[in-house]
Specification:
FAD/NAD(P)-binding domain; 7-stranded mixed beta sheet; 3 domains; 393 residues; alpha/beta; binds flavin-adenine dinucleotide; Enolase-like, domain 1
């Protein structure tokens, strides 16, 4: 049985960051990355943004140090079992390797709705992106987009920009209802409509049926909508089954880790979308978190002691807007809106009482460090004191 000092399960973004850190820290250790996608690591966010706006597929690959003979990849193969006591991992085809230290970076998968998958697409992995791209072809299509959150909003924007006729369904009464205040949500909805998007609110899809024209979405109001194809953003679920089998889980939604990324088993680590740290206490499914935590955990696996306590940020791009956000953006909080140009450039401050808990920089750039610093201050804020704290330079 082959032996590696480090085995990484999952060839995604957190795994890539961890591997880079290990290579820098440990000049001797051998590394095996086992990934179930048939690809070397790539940047996932372009799948619902830049790849539809002209970025080339060949530009999404992350450099993997393939010239380094300490690093091996076993791709297109799913890990089925971790034997914690014997420090072994087994993949579906029966191959087995031994590790000294193991990293679980299995990420998440799109939540799949009931019924047909034939003309229904779930952005999440490159294979699915290629399948959707092929089905869309060059003709304008009649497309149903389901979900009023991150993936739904991004796909509705890029597909309408590409000339497709988009019908956008969401359970809430406006886009991002749980994250953006009514003013911003309604402003967004108007912009989508100006791009020809037909928005249907307060409806959930219960299942998809195959139909002559493509697909039929059956809704919880008893009606149905037909389209040539449907693209669904109904949330992500962490891939925790391996950790569950290996006894690494407790009651929470992800694999619990301490600030060094260690699970209950000190030689087994987790990071990225699948992990829940003692600092965040909930799943943080976004890029900056995956890269920063992945890097810190890789350093620790190679003998370092890098506590990961940073507040990560998340971002998105919609039409001519981009945003970056830190902290807890939830509309149950009071929101102080500090617009320079209403709906187009400004900062939103989320407060619990007079304590700052979240910051949204809307078409405002390089404001994340200031947002983090404001959130760290153990102080109370008045609305007036917050206004003007972050501006475009
Ligand atoms: C379409 C899309 C758009 C996004 N856009 C943004 C954005 O705009 N901003 C932002 O901040 N974040 C965005 N994200 C989130 C960001 O990409 C993720 O947070 C990040 O990729 C998480 O990294 P990870 O390594 O934890 O998981 P992933 O990158 O998902 O990698 C996990 C890998 O593990 C593999 N795997 C799972 N189980 C096994 C197994 N048993 N054996 C072997 N391999 C396994 C998976 O197939 C996958 O390849 C987006 C995500 C998607 C899907």
């Amino acid at each position: 049985m082959e032996h590696y000092r480090y085995i990484v399960i999952g060839g995604g973004m957190a795994g890539h960051a961890a591997v880079q850190a290990i290579l820098e820290q440990d000049s001797q250790g051998t590394i095996l990355v086992i990934g179930d996608e048939p690809f070397a690591p790539y940047r996932r966010p372009p799948l619902s943004k830049a790849l539809w706006k002209g970025e080339r597929l060949e530009d999404i690959w992350l450099s993997v140090g393939s010239e380094d003979d300490r690093l091996n990849f076993h791709l297109g193969s799913r890990v089925q079992n971790i034997n914690v006591d014997e420090k072994r991992v087994e993949v579906a085809d029966g191959a087995t390797w031994q590790f000294e230290k193991l990293l679980l970076v299995t990420g998440g998968r799109p939540r799949v709705l009931a019924g047909s998958r034939k003309r229904v697409f779930y952005p999440g992995h490159l294979t699915e992106h290629v399948r959707l791209h092929k089905h869309l072809g060059d003709e304008p299509r009649d497309v149903l987009v389901v979900g009023g959150g991150f993936i739904g909003s991004e796909m509705a924007a890029v597909l309408s920009e590409r000339g497709h006729q988009v019908k956008w369904l969401m359970m809430e009464d406006r886009p991002f209802a749980r994250m953006f205040p009514e003013s911003l949500g309604n402003h967004l909805a108007s912009a989508y409509r100006e791009h020809g998007v037909e928005i249907h609110t307060r409806v959930g899809v219960t299942r998809f049926d195959e139909a002559a024209a493509g697909v039929l979405a059956v809704m919880d109001n008893g009606r149905s909508i037909a389209a040539e194809l449907a693209v669904v953003g109904a949330g992500f679920e962490p891939n925790v089954e391996l950790a569950q089998k290996a006894g690494l889980m407790s009651a929470g939604p992800g694999v619990p880790v301490n600030e060094f990324g260690q699970t209950v088993h000190p030689n087994i680590y987790a990071a990225g979308d699948v992990a829940v740290s003692a600092v965040d206490l909930h799943l943080m499914m976004h890029e900056d978190h995956a890269l920063s935590q992945g890097r810190a955990v890789g350093t620790n696996m190679a003998g370092g002691r890098a506590a990961y306590t940073e507040r990560s940020f998340f971002y998105s791009d919609l039409y001519h807007w981009g945003y970056e956000a830190v902290g807890d953006l939830n509309t149950r909080h009071r929101v102080v809106e500090d617009w320079v140009v209403p709906g187009d450039e400004g900062v939103l401050y989320y407060l619990e009482g007079d304590r700052l808990v979240g910051v949204l920089n809307w078409n405002v750039w390089d404001g994340v460090p200031t947002a983090r610093a404001l959130l760290e201050m153990p102080r109370r804020w008045t609305d007036e004191e917050l206004r003007g704290q972050i501006r475009n330079g």
